[in-house]
């Protein structure tokens, strides 16, 4: 699917299938806006943003991308997430549905604030 040997987020996105690249680029740009001072890295083969600790991770899959901000960051948005597929701390964003930028932005902002103010842990 995606090269697990990627050393940068740009390499990760460029190695993803074409249908994933558009959504990965949208997510990456949005996360850069929310956490402009975060450090970018590849951990466990996936892109992550870090600021003192991991803020969020994401990954490409056959039919969707996963946005992983932690279970605690998703909890306040339970009602808004009801129409989306979620996992333990992840939001699946299917390629055949509109990219939920407003929702992802709110979740990402919440996660950044939670880490900054409460030293929230990763998973």
Description:
The structure is a single chain. A hairpin with a 1-residue loop joins strand 2 (46-51) and strand 3 (53-60). The protein has helices spanning 9-15, 18-34, 71-74, 78-81, 101-118; strands spanning 39-43, 46-51, 53-60, 64-68, 86-87, 90-94. A six-stranded antiparallel sheet has the order 1-2-3-4-6-5. With 123 residues, the protein is an alpha+beta fold. The chain is globular and about 35 Å long. The chain has one domain (9-115): Aspartate Aminotransferase, domain 1, CATH 3.90.1150.200. It has five helices and six strands, in the order ααββββααββα.
Shape category? globular
CATH architecture: Alpha-Beta Complex
Sheet-strand content, in percent, reads 25-35%
Tell me the count of domains. Answer: 1
Q: Helical region count?
A: 5
**Within the CATH hierarchy, at the fold level, what is the topology?**
Aspartate Aminotransferase, domain 1
CATH class division? Alpha Beta
Radius of gyration: 13 Å
Oligomer kind? single chain
Which sequence of SSEs, written as H and E, runs from N to C? HHEEEEHHEEH
Order of strands in the sheet with the most strands?
Answer: 1-2-3-4-6-5
Report the biggest beta sheet as strand number plus sense, adding barrel if it closes. Answer: 6 strands, antiparallel
Distinctive features:
Aspartate Aminotransferase, domain 1; 123 residues; 5 helices; alpha+beta; six-stranded antiparallel beta sheet
Topology summary:
Elements: H1 9-15, H2 18-34, E1 39-43, E2 46-51, E3 53-60, E4 64-68, H3 71-74, H4 78-81, E5 86-87, E6 90-94, H5 101-118
Antiparallel strand pairs: 1-2, 2-3, 3-4, 4-6, 5-6
């Amino acid at each position: 699917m995606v090269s697990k040997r990627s050393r940068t987020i740009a390499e990760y996105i460029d190695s993803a299938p074409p249908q994933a690249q558009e959504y990965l680029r949208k997510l990456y740009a949005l996360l850069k806006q929310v956490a402009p001072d975060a450090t970018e890295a590849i951990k466990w083969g996936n892109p992550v943003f870090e600021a003192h600790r991991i803020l969020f991770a994401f990954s490409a899959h056959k039919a969707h991308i996963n946005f992983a901000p932690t279970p605690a960051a998703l909890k306040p948005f339970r009602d808004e997430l009801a129409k989306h597929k979620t996992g333990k701390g992840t939001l699946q964003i299917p390629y055949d549905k509109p990219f939920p930028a407003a929702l992802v932005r709110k979740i990402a902002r919440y996660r950044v604030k939670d880490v900054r103010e409460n030293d929230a842990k990763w998973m």
